[in-house]
Amino acid sequence: DTSPFTDTDMVFLENCFEKIKAMKESQEQCDVTLVVGGTEFRVHRVALVGASEYFRKLFDEKYAKELQDRFVLNDCEADTMSVILDFIYSGILNVDDFNFAEILHLCDYFGIELAKEVCAEYAIENVSSDNCVEIYILGDIYGLPEICRYAKTTIMSNLEAISGTEAFFELPIRHIEDIFTKPLGCHDKELLYRVVIRWVQYDLPCRKKFLKNLLDAVEREHVSL
């Protein structure tokens, strides 16, 4: 066991979480109100500052100078904010297939790195042929290369089916170049050629200039195998 915490430490931390969560639920000593889509959340400034770089900067700039204790957040939904606050107060992130993208976005926006790691673990455990393109894109957007690696492996393992989907056709050139210069799990050169040509034909006027380089990249990869 390489954990830096003893059993006593863990009991202490769990008790702290329980007490802080109970204080939030009873609104005891709450000193900040977050307003999200008409829903008000009474919370503790110190809890938000401890978990989020975004809130630390927000309170430094406004709370300390203006004694402001009410903040309207326009970039999220109340349900998603509730999940984020539950994580801050309990350490448990209730992420699922339906809220994953929005939760990941808010974790990144609020600078809650530990929650981003939980999202990454969820994505890796749940990547499939149905969602691998979306997960690949999200991993790229939010700087999570491990997600991208798992998603690319799934894409290439199911390339024939996935390459006919709208999500795949709409991938920009930089994603296609990244995927096809490292065709993980697919050694079928003819299939790769067909997929490249179909992707180019989807928007021929804009993409025909990429065709030669993509076909050359496929050829180079197979020469090196």
From TrEMBL:
InterPro entries: BACK (IPR011705), BTB/POZ_dom (IPR000210), SKP1/BTB/POZ_sf (IPR011333). Residues 30-97 form the BTB domain. CDD domains: BTB_POZ_ZBTB_KLHL-like. It comes from the Eukaryota. Pfam families: BACK, BTB. PANTHER family: KELCH-LIKE PROTEIN 31, LD33804P. This is BTB domain-containing protein. It comes from Tabanus bromius.
